[in-house]
Amino acid sequence: MDDWRKDQELLVMEGRIKVPYRWFAGEVGTRYLESLRDAGKFLGTRCSKCDKVYHIPRRNCPECFEECSEWVELGSSGDLESYTIVRKHHPQLAPLPLPYGYGIIKLEGADTGFLHLLGEFDEKDLKVGARVEAVFSDAREGNILDVKYFRPVKGVE
Amino acid sequence: MEAVAIVGVGMTEIKRERKADGYPDLVYEATRAALDDAGMSIDQIDNVVTVSNDFFDGRTISSMAIMDACGSYDKNVTTVEGDGTFGAFFGLMRVLSGSYGTTLVCAHHKGSESQMPLITNAMFDPIFARSLGIESITSSALQARAYMAKYGVSEEQCALVSVKNHGNAFANPVAQLPLELTVEKVMSSPYIADPIKLLDCCPISDGASALILASEERANKITDKPVWIKGVAHCSSAYHLGDRNLYCVCALEEAAKKAYAMAGIGDPAKDIDLIELYDAFTYMEPMWLEGLGICERGEGGKLTESGKTALGGELPVNASGGCLSGNPVLVAGLNRIIECALQVRGDAGEHQVDGVKTALAHGINGPCGQSHCVWVLGGEK
Predict the structure, then answer these.
(1) Model confidence over B41-51: pLDDT tens digits?
(2) Is residue B110 located within the same domain as residue B214?
(3) Are B373 and B83 in contact (CB under 8 A)?
(4) Rounded to whole angstroms, how far apart are CA atoms B190 and B199?
(5) Is A94 part of the contact surface with chain B (CB cutoff 8 Å)?
(6) Which domain holds residue B211?
(7) Mutation target among A68, A82, A100, A106 for the B interface, most CBs of B within 10 A
(8) Which site among B173, B224, B321, B375 is 20 to 30 Å from B164 CA-CA?
């Protein structure tokens, strides 16, 4: 085997799996994304037992295991629970020019954080607890990128 | 729990690219090594649990492609899609069911064949998160930041983990990436996603491993060096990152509590002699040590600084070099168990730690340690 391998470049087959998917946003997801698209408003759902408001909204409370039947309108700004500034990324994945950020944002009225992009920031303005606000896309299509990104609220410490 | 033992283990060398080996080649090498280690033939294996991920393999029902390589013809074989610690947990359950006297658990991974960020991006929700481009490194950066901001753990303290674990890897013949580092070198490596720098990250790896579990009756016939499973548990937390306080290791605390209760561990910092944990990124080591109750919440950075977790320290952590020195995903957790088993047997070679009676292995699944699996192993039943 070893002798044979001396002059032989090991072969590699290049390939790609191409499978279209249709992920259903469902009733809860559709109502949420429709509100982002048409009204520019974030919605959450409230647990009927513990009153916790979930953003992104969902049908049941994972803690109480009861229905989240009430819809709640949330503010479009909130506090940064964590953040990162991305310096290097796979070219197919980066939705914004580098460097851009990711943040976990607890919007006004919500009890859970929300993962989204950060843009239009001075690096010194990003810190845990900083106030950030949503910037909406000009052409909205009913998906999570209808929110362009969050940016620091000017003049707020 | 009835006594179940690890009676054989096998690991391939971990490399960035094992170009001469396809998946079945790696699985055969690991399975053969585990059988030889146990002194068993494939006929003595009653059932098989394989561990793989279809996205990584680029093949649906990826386990089916390695049936001939793990010797599972005419046997009951099933697959766990998740870290190897979870696959081994299922293998243990199959022995405990009483239906099987022995279980072979094998795991395989080739990070070299695909593109890691595209695969780890696909673990996120396709409606609400995937189009944001989040993946393993960027999500872990959010956790690292939350952890550091909450407790004041520093990047330098995390850099020490990189120095320690890459240094330990020199004594481990299967490790991919032994490196002579300093805190300064780690600190000056480029940021990928703040606060995570290049030398805070595990590498992309190829490898496979296998272990054999046996009931008490069978174990005593197979080997005079059984490694007994004293306690084991796994717990999970929320899928959506924003649902969790990312600095909180609640699921790990729960899993550890349950495993310690089974194993009769009162004070883990004293009762455990060695730990192999899933350090995909440097910050994870101090954080998981807190979750394991080795120190208080927020004290993991100081614990690393104290030298207690170093190879010559009181409680060596990742004496093998850890995942930072080679991270074939899924395989990596199984390797944590195997490393602990070798240490308990006294067979770890150059990185053998003196007097390991009780060892703890840990694995994670899901983004930012969504779920944790904790194993306590010992040489005495």
Answers:
(1) 999 999 999 99
(2) yes
(3) yes
(4) 8
(5) yes
(6) 4-115+205-222
(7) A82
(8) B375
